[in-house]
Amino acid sequence: MEQQWQDVGSAAELGRIAVQEVRVGKATIALSCRDGIFGAVSGTCLHVGGPLGQGTLEGDHLVCPWHSWRFHRVTGEAAFADNRVARHDVRVENGRVLVAVEPATKPGRAKRDPDPLARARGARRQATRALGSAPRRLASALGAPKNAVAAASASMQRAAAIVRLLPSVRQGSPDAGSSRW
After folding, report:
1. Of 12-16, 39-43, 142-146, 151-155, where does mean pLDDT reach its minimum?
2. Cβ burial, residue 73 (10 Å; 0-12/13-18/19+)
3. pLDDT by residue (tens digit) across 46-98?
4. For the whole prediction, is pTM greater than 0.70?
5. N or C: the chain end with fewer CB closer than 10 Å?
């Protein structure tokens, strides 16, 4: 299938503005120009959907106006981690800027370990599965009332989760080894 191109305007006029939003097909694109070289990436920041085309250009990076996330204006690669916004091919023909309707790359996010609270929730689920109904069976065998059985079961499950969680939170935390833990 042949790539479709959309004319977004005069290269002379578009080249006067460092960063701007343009519509290409159904998408909003952040079109940038530096030293006569155009770049086109998705106009939506990966963070919380900020408008990259309304941001600024610092060196070769587009800076989102909402939270200052930075993406390379031509490749879409983030200035940090392995994130990227979609990149569109750009060409100039007969003094007109043409942008590919379909992105050349797809957006991507780095896989990150969950934060300590997410790890805690996961450890709690694991502890609950491991303990099963043992605390309830033990409490009922001892003749405890039903509400006491439920309370004992919940307490034992929380305790097991906390015991299992502590080494992994300390080891996987950004402050591992610091005195704050």
Report:
1. 142-146
2. buried
3. 888 999 999 999 999 999 999 999 999 999 999 876 789 999 999 999 999 99
4. no
5. N
Please state, in angstroms and rounded to a whole number, the distance separating the CA atoms of residues 43 and 64.
10
Residue type for position 143: G
Amino acid at site 132: G
**Bridge partners of 77?**
84
d(CA 142, CA 149): 10
Structure tokens that stand for 114 in this block: 């969950």
Contact (CB, 8 A) for 46 and 22? no
Please provide residue 174's backbone torsions phi and psi, each rounded to the nearest 5 degrees: -65, -20
> 163: left (phi > 0), else alpha (psi -120 to 50), else beta?
alpha
39/21 Cα distance (integer angstroms): 12
